[in-house]
């Protein structure tokens, strides 16, 4: 008998625990009225620590914040599916050529090509390419700026200076042998007078 009472008590405890869990799950759900109350309270300038205990005692301030974020995202998406998208499309087509021509002038391409590439790559890929380019430009020690001098121009200047280096080295290489072959003035003064003296005092044949 005691064992049966213990089993029955354990069963009642498990049922009550499940019931409490179920009530907790129900308290975490949001009704349409709750959403309206949440949006109104937030629009009035109340913070999450004020909204939660006042309007939703069973919910945490963080839960209220996350719910409000989802509601705003949904509302914004619905607006862009309607009138906002129509207004954007009309404004885009009116300023399309002017807008893309500014960017095309920087890259030296037709504005239609620039528009197509940007649409094709997307903002995420463009951001990645931008960061990669910045890392590469960091190796040039700040040479890439708005001065209007491109890297190719700097390369051409360096190429123009390269012939000066071997030309100078060639002059140095040839100068040493030339000095070795040409007799010095002192050797000429010593050699030539002695030869002249010998010729003058040589007995006639």
Automatic annotation (TrEMBL):
This is Myb-like domain-containing protein. Residues 14-31 have a biased composition (Low complexity). SUPFAM superfamilies: Homeodomain-like. PANTHER family: GH12359P, NEW-GLUE PROTEIN. InterPro entries: Actin-binding/GATA_Znf (IPR053095), Homeodomain-like_sf (IPR009057), SANT/Myb (IPR001005). It comes from Melanomma pulvis-pyrius CBS 109.77. Residues 22-72 form the Myb-like domain. Residues 1-64 are annotated as: Disordered.
């Amino acid at each position: 008998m005691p064992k049966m009472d213990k089993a029955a008590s354990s069963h009642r405890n498990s049922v009550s625990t499940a019931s409490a869990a179920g009530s907790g799950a129900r308290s975490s759900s949001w009704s349409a009225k709750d959403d309206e109350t949440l949006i109104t309270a937030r629009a009035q300038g109340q913070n999450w620590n004020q909204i939660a205990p006042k309007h939703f005692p069973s919910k945490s301030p963080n839960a209220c914040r996350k719910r409000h974020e989802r509601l705003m995202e949904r509302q914004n998406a619905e607006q862009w599916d309607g009138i906002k998208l129509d207004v954007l499309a009309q404004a885009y087509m009116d300023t399309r050529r002017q807008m893309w021509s500014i960017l095309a002038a920087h890259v030296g391409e037709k504005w239609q090509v620039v528009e197509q590439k940007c649409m094709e790559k997307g903002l995420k890929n463009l951001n990645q390419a931008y960061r990669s380019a910045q890392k590469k430009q960091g190796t040039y020690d700040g040479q890439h700026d708005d001065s209007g001098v491109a890297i190719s121009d700097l390369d051409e200047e360096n190429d123009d200076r390269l012939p000066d280096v071997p030309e100078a080295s060639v002059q140095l290489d040839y100068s040493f042998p030339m000095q070795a072959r040409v007799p010095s003035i002192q050797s000429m003064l010593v050699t030539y007078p002695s030869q002249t003296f010998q010729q003058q005092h040589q007995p006639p044949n």
